[in-house]
Design a protein that fits this description.
Belongs to the cation transport ATPase (P-type) (TC 3.A.3) family. Type IB subfamily. Helices cover 42% and strands 24% of the residues. By secondary structure, it is an alpha/beta fold. Strands 1-13-12-11-2-9-10 form a seven-stranded mixed beta sheet, with helices on both faces. A six-stranded antiparallel beta sheet has the order 3-8-7-6-5-4. The chain binds adenosine-5'-diphosphate and magnesium ion (MG). Adenosine-5'-diphosphate (ADP) binds next to α3, α5, β5, β6 and β7.
């Protein structure tokens, strides 16, 4: 590629809100066969809302929500804000937690008014020696609706199933359609529940789903896709997306995402609108066509 055509290409891209960090990124993007995207905050808004809470007979739902919100108040996870907001919306007084510890990829553990509280995925309950299967039918239904099922344990007992729903961003479905029209495969990589991830992938027409990926596992997921002999672009926004952005043949970050994702990426999408991804691919192809 000539320096001039690369400069023209990156200039046009910038007008469309796509920042190529290097000429190599502009050249690299036209060679990818798979675009893998993070789900939360990338394909979805990253602003989940609490939609469901079913307590076991031994617990009162408002008590569960109050204790769980107290536990989540110290968490930075998007799920935490959904739960705290829901407690406030119900007019519940949320006490301060005495102890708090995040368990990345699983959930969190806290002590509230002397009571142990754990909140997280089904695999977290199992790790605690609790069986979430009492809520199995609920969890399957919620997952199939694209909601994320979570569980609360209080006093060492399974207390409730909770669900949050994170709306799909405007532009995500169009972006997937445009990538397909460009002949690319589209994959989703997420730590979320498999049924939830599959339901959202179905709504978006995504081909491949890698779900329940632990933090740190996203770069392995990218490597697995590359091991099929394909060149992979990865699109993400979060701290735990940085290794996958680095592993990918081309890493694209949402400009409003976390600093570490933006710093690691080869391409930055200034707006959160994923139509920037097929736009970037089109520009990369056009630039390289002009050169040849
Ligand atoms: P993702 O970024 O895809 O949500 P994470 O690794 O952050 O992946 O979380 C994976 C899963 O762990 C979540 O879907 C949820 O089930 C559980 N989890 C993580 N943090 C929390 C939290 N603060 N409260 C409840 N559940 C959590
Ligand atoms: Mg994310």
């Amino acid at each position: 590629a000539t320096p001039t055509s690369i400069m023209v290409g990156t200039g046009k891209a910038a007008e469309l809100g796509v920042l190529f960090r290097s000429g190599a990124a502009l050249e690299g993007l036209q060679g990818v066969q798979v675009v893998a995207l993070d789900k939360t905050g990338t394909l979805t808004k990253g602003r989940p809302e609490l939609t469901d809470l079913h307590a076991t007979d031994a617990f009162d739902p408002d008590t569960v929500l109050r204790l769980v919100a107290a536990a989540e108040a110290s968490s930075e996870h998007p799920i935490a804000r959904a739960i705290v907001d829901a407690a406030h919306a119900r007019g519940l007084a949320v006490p301060a937690a005495e102890q708090f510890e995040a368990v990345p990829g699983f959930g969190l553990e806290a002590r509230v008014q002397g009571r142990p509280v754990q909140v997280g995925a089904d695999r977290y309950m199992r790790r605690l020696g609790l069986n979430p299967d009492a809520f199995r039918a609920d969890a399957e239904r919620l997952g199939d609706e694209g909601r994320t099922p979570l569980y609360a344990a209080i006093d060492g007992q399974l207390a409730a199933i909770i669900a949050v729903a994170d709306p799909i961003k405007d532009g995500s479905a169009d972006a997937v359609r445009a990538l397909h029209a460009q002949g690319l495969q589209v994959a989703m990589i997420t730590g979320d529940h498999a049924r939830t991830a599959n339901a959202i992938a179905r709504q978006l027409g995504i081909d491949t789903v890698l779900a329940e990926v632990l933090p740190g596992g996203k770069s392995d997921a990218v490597r697995d896709l590359q091991a099929r002999g394909q060149r992979v672009a990865f699109v993400g926004d979060g701290i735990n997306d940085a290794p996958a952005l680095a592993q990918a043949d081309v890493g694209l970050a949402i400009g409003t995402g976390t600093d570490v994702a933006v710093e690691t990426a080869d391409v930055i999408l200034m707006s959160g609108d994923l139509r920037g991804v097929p736009n970037a691919v089109a520009l990369s192809r056009a630039t390289l066509r002009n050169i040849r």
